[in-house]
Design goal:
The complex is a heterotrimer.
Chain A (H helix, E strand, L loop, with lengths): L2 E3 L10 E13 L1 H14 L2 E5 L6 E2 L17 E4 L2 E10 L12 E8 L6 E5 L12 E6 L10 E6 L1
Antiparallel strand pairs in A: 3-4, 3-5, 6-7, 6-9, 7-8, 9-10
Chain B lengths: L2 E2 L2 E2 H6 L1 H4 L9 E8 L3 E8 L2 E7 L8 E5 L2 H9 L4 H7 L2 E4 L8 H5 L14 H6 L1 H4 L10 E8 L4 E8 L2 E6 L7 E6 H9 L4 H6 L4 E4 L1 H6 L13 H6 L3 E13 L1 H12 L3 E5 L6 E2 L5 E2 L4 E2 L2 E5 L3 E9 L16 E8 L8 E4 L13 E6 L10 E6 L2
Parallel strand pairs in B: 3-6, 8-11
Antiparallel strand pairs in B: 1-2, 3-4, 4-5, 6-7, 8-9, 9-10, 11-12, 14-15, 14-18, 16-17, 19-20, 19-22, 20-21, 22-23
Chain C lengths: L17 E8 L11 H16 L8 E5 L10 H4 L1 H4 L5 E5 L5 H14 L5 E9 L5 H6 L7 H4 L7 H10 L1 H21 L14 H7 L2 E3 L2 E2 L8 E10 H7 L4 E9 L17 H12 L5 H4 L2 E3 L5 H11 L6 H7 L16 H4 L3 H17 L13 E8 L3 E8 L5
Parallel strand pairs in C: 2-3, 2-4, 9-10
Antiparallel strand pairs in C: 1-7, 1-8, 4-7, 5-6, 8-11, 10-11
Classes of the chains: A mainly beta, B alpha+beta, C alpha/beta.
């Protein structure tokens, strides 16, 4: 039997293989998340959940109040479709999974009646003109995808 | 006929042609037999986009696959998704002779899911027509000028003309004389199509819907309206639970390093190279840099085989789909553990065996590798092992 | 069987004793479309907190885990904060394959025993219906070679080996008896997912007609695919005695891995199984001479009837056909010498990332006397619980009712 030696330092036969992972999966949005998306889709309304104790309104919806842990899943309130930009970032990184063509603005919009900002895409304003405090309104998607993107983006009022 | 979940076994077979999606079944040519104890037998023949459902007295003949349910509850429950098909299969209440995969792959693809009739019974065609103007989407109908006539026979039916012009929409009773297109069908078919319980495609091809005039216009109308939401189905609306389906596709690169690199170099030369632990003498295949038992580096490589002996064999009857390609391998196939000549007795090598050799394969049998015509130093160089006669 | 040579592992040195004071789980079912992941986890967390009569303020640290990529989601611990309650607390994510639930328990035990944290909440979960189990398993394999031939978690080799050793008739009968025993246990456990109501006289029929998956591994033998979550709360001796009337003590645990290669399990000469090695070492260092006599319950991670039956021999250090005889003589029944999986085991319920945690959870409920319909009638003082993962690796732990070892 012939033997051959290959030491750690010898990289003659080191290769790199191309690989791929394609991972089909589904995500159950849940009862609350579904209600939220269905309201966006069918009624063009943004809904939040309000804690009767803390008087705080959360969007997107959550089952329990973040502050006092009260179950709030039945306490739906309708929020306005307009709000104020409280923070933003410009997405410039090119990734195939991104929902829009880069560069685009990812903003945090505090809607009328909500205590938490909703993170979403801001369009209709030049990147150099976007300012914290500007008033924005929701624009709904013409075609439903049954996702948060049924609210397509926000744009200046 | 026993009724479960508001449905009888006959309901399911009677609605089959209506729920059939010919386009999805255009490449299929199969006969499926159904037996439901206490209810009867049915034969469903699907051929190039056509379907024939017949009740059978006596034996089920000429069916590639037959599905047997122990009782009506099992059959109806699994059809409606109220009972997990997998659970029914596990306990033997549902039995498939032939290709079990049909249940999970073909059937969901070519049929609209059966829904119990009670859901749609509350809505009639008139209700749906009356919501047309509020569901109208002017942004989609810019520049459109057409008159669509509906002649819906039966209960809750009637005759209507929908006028679309200048981004406006109006509904008029009766049929106008200058219709762009007229659609004639039973009112219940219209309701079923609008609620999504009947395949529109199937209704058209089966002749239940008649078109007079511009066919293209008929196809385009749905674009101008938001989807009809059943107001009487409040409960079912609350029940709607959204599932987001995604396929994440990620490209990867994997480096072999030196030890594994030698393995691929060997494949290119149609050789099995294993490295040997200097302490315990174990031959590692595929090669690993370190012997995990002795914790020493293994730099020496030897050639094993190429012939070997089967030490264990798995015959796979139920293949899981490959998550990377979605393809399902043809079954049965065999995965064998092979002790290559000169390998140390603990170190078997796992690979496929030639399909034709499956019936003769057994533990202790001698095998030899079959290589690809052109070897490149990749996984595909080794095709399979075959019996060494 | 060639024994693996390694230095004997020492018993864990604990700074202080650790007790399980809270156990919570969601229902275990095939579909949970009405809850998203954080909501499902929170249900288990709330149940565990209620069981321990605690609030999130009492928790100092959270360990969180599931099967990596089984839902095809990266870093779920981050967006699960709403459900786990980890906001403002230390949280660690652990993912060790099928054993993860058990590893979470080991980690929580170590974190409390060391004195680094007083009270630790462990959460294991899975939503198998959201992902692609085969995809997850295939992607665990070595990408250069084994990923290409890996076909998921099904194997018939154990069945073939048992048929070879004990003859087809006895082996097949035993596997079916094991399967039906697990279903009978599941029928008693209101928390179990799959409860079929099988009877022993169905064995003959099922072992012939149940669809073949791989070799003699048939659909009826195989474990469930479930969605669900389990949460457990661990605290040190002083606090455990204060907050709970029935704390369950973690005596010792061992984790054993082997090299990542399935091939060398099935050559002519077989290595010592990690299960055997783990049990041998654990019993050795705790002075357990006769595990069947010592333990009052064994909650084993049994992915299929064949594996469960074969592994009972390894874990309990039995020889020859002793394990088959125990099964045939009813010694694994609820009123037998060593009740095996009164919960119905993994065959009945299998939300994988929670599965290995459900083993000590169900065992602890037995010790507390809170197991409901599947409660063992005799007093349960000593429990054994195992986890299994990957290409055969093992976590094995001992739970005790009293601090008297």
């Amino acid at each position: 039997m012939t033997t051959m030696t290959c030491k750690k330092e010898d990289t003659t036969n080191c290769f790199v293989f191309e690989g791929k992972m394609a991972l089909p999966n589904q995500y159950f949005v849940g009862r609350l998340g579904s209600k939220f998306i269905i309201a966006l889709r069918d009624k063009k309304k943004i809904m939040g959940l309000k804690c009767p104790k803390c008087k705080k309104t959360f969007v997107p919806p959550r089952e329990y109040c973040h502050f006092c842990q009260t179950k709030i899943d039945e306490n739906w309130v309708e929020l306005g479709n307009e709000g104020v930009l409280v923070n933003y970032a410009v997405v410039r990184y090119l990734g195939k999974h991104l929902p829009k063509k880069v560069p685009y603005i990812l903003g945090q919009i505090k809607l009328k009646g909500a205590d938490t900002p909703l993170t979403h895409i801001v369009e209709g304003v030049d990147i150099k003109d976007v300012r914290i405090g500007m008033k924005l309104k929701a624009v709904f998607a013409p075609k439903t995808t049954n996702t948060l993107l049924d609210l397509d983006h926000f744009e200046p009022v | 006929m026993a009724e479960f979940y508001g449905t009888t076994v006959a309901d399911i077979f009677n609605t089959m042609p209506k729920r059939f999606k010919p386009e999805e079944a255009k490449d299929e040519d199969i006969a499926i037999g159904y037996e439901c104890k206490g209810e009867g037998k049915w034969k469903v023949t699907i051929k190039h986009g056509t379907i024939k459902v017949e009740e059978v007295k006596g034996d089920l003949k000429g069916c590639a696959t037959t599905i047997h349910a122990a009782d009506a509850e099992t059959f109806i429950g699994t059809t409606l998704g109220k009972i997990q098909a997998m659970d029914a299969l596990t306990t033997g209440k549902l039995r498939v002779v032939g290709d079990v995969k049909l249940l999970m792959t073909l059937l969901p693809k070519i049929f609209v899911q059966y829904t119990a009739p009670e859901k749609k019974s509350s809505v009639v065609a008139k209700d749906i027509i009356s919501t047309i103007t509020e569901r109208f989407r002017p942004d989609k109908a810019a520049g459109v000028d057409m008159k669509v006539g509906y002649d819906l026979a039966g209960e809750g039916g009637g005759k209507w003309t929908i006028v679309i012009k200048d981004g406006k929409c109006a509904v008029k009773e009766g049929l106008a004389k200058d219709l762009t297109v007229k659609m004639t069908m039973p009112a219940e078919i219209y309701v079923g199509m609008m609620l999504g319980t009947i395949s529109g495609e199937s209704a058209f091809t089966s002749g239940q819907v008649k078109l007079d005039g511009d066919m293209m216009a008929a196809g385009a109308t749905s674009r101008f309206f938001n989807k009809f939401v059943d107001p009487n189905a409040k409960a079912s609306e609350a029940e709607e639970l959204i599932t987001i389906k995604v396929t994440n596709s990620i490209n990867c690169r994997f480096a072999t390093g030196t030890a594994y690199g030698m393995w691929f170099k060997g494949l290119k030369e149609k050789k099995f190279l294993a490295n040997v632990c200097p302490k315990c003498g174990r031959t590692q295949i595929t090669p690993r840099e370190i012997c995990a038992f002795c914790r020493v580096r293994c730099n020496e490589f030897v050639e094993l085989g190429p012939r070997g002996t089967i030490t264990a064999a798995d015959v796979v009857y139920f293949a899981s789909p490959d998550p990377l390609t979605g393809a399902v391998r043809e079954t049965p196939y065999a995965m064998c553990w092979i002790l290559l000549d000169n390998a140390s007795p603990q170190e078997a090598f796992c690979f496929d065996i030639k399909r034709e050799d499956l019936p003769k394969m057994k533990v202790g049998a001698r095998v030899r590798p079959v290589w690809a015509k052109e070897t490149k130093g990749t996984f595909t160089d080794l095709l399979y092992f075959e019996l060494d006669k | 069987m060639k024994k693996q040579s390694a230095k004997p592992a020492k018993a864990h040195k604990k700074n202080r004793n650790v007790g399980i004071v809270g156990i919570g789980m969601t229902s275990l079912s095939s579909h949970k479309e009405d809850q998203n992941q954080p909501e499902m986890i929170h249900e288990a967390v709330r149940a565990a907190l209620a069981d321990a009569k605690m609030t999130l303020d009492d928790i100092d640290c959270i360990v969180h885990g599931n099967m990596e990529l089984f839902e095809m989601q990266y870093q779920p611990d981050m967006w699960h904060v709403l459900g786990s309650g980890a906001y403002g607390k230390d949280e660690y994510r652990i993912t060790t394959g099928g054993t993860v639930g058990a590893t979470l328990v080991c980690a929580a035990d170590n974190l409390v025993a060391s004195g680094l944290y007083d009270t630790v909440l462990a959460i294991g979960f899975e939503k198998l219906q959201e992902g692609n189990t085969t995809g997850g398993i295939t992607n665990m394999a070595d990408p250069l070679w084994f990923r290409n031939i890996q076909t998921g978690a099904l194997t018939g080799t154990t069945a073939a080996m048992m048929i070879d050793e004990f003859g087809a008739e006895r082996a097949k009968k035993a596997a079916m008896k094991y399967r039906i025993l697990m279903d009978k246990h599941a029928m008693l456990n209101e928390r179990a997912h799959r409860r079929f109501g099988l009877e022993y006289d169905q064995a003959e029929d099922l072992m012939k007609t149940s669809p073949q998956l791989v070799g003699e591994l048939r659909l009826i033998h195989m474990c469930s695919q479930s969605d669900g979550a389990c949460a457990m709360i661990f605290t040190h001796e002083k606090k455990a005695k204060k907050v709970s009337k029935t704390p369950v003590w973690i005596r010792d645990h061992i984790t054993v891995h082997r090299e990542e290669n399935m091939s060398n399990l099935y050559a002519f000469e077989k290595p010592e199984m990690t299960h055997h090695y783990a049990a041998r070492k654990l019993f050795e260092r705790n002075g357990i001479k006769d595990p069947v006599k010592y333990f009052d319950v064994f909650e084993m991670y049994d992915p299929s009837a064949w594996w469960g039956l074969d592994w009972s021999r390894e874990f309990l250090q039995l020889k020859g056909d002793e394990h088959l005889r125990m099964l045939e003589d009813g010694e694994f029944d609820l009123d037998g010498k060593l009740p095996l999986n009164p919960s119905g085991g993994v065959i009945a319920s299998n939300p994988i990332g929670a599965t290995a945690m459900l083993r000590p959870a169900f065992a602890a409920l037995q010790i507390r006397g809170d197991a409901g319909g599947c409660q063992i009638k005799k007093p349960v003082r000593h429990a054994l619980a195992s986890g299994f993962g990957g290409t055969l690796w093992t976590v094995l732990m001992m739970l005790e009712k009293d601090l008297d070892w």
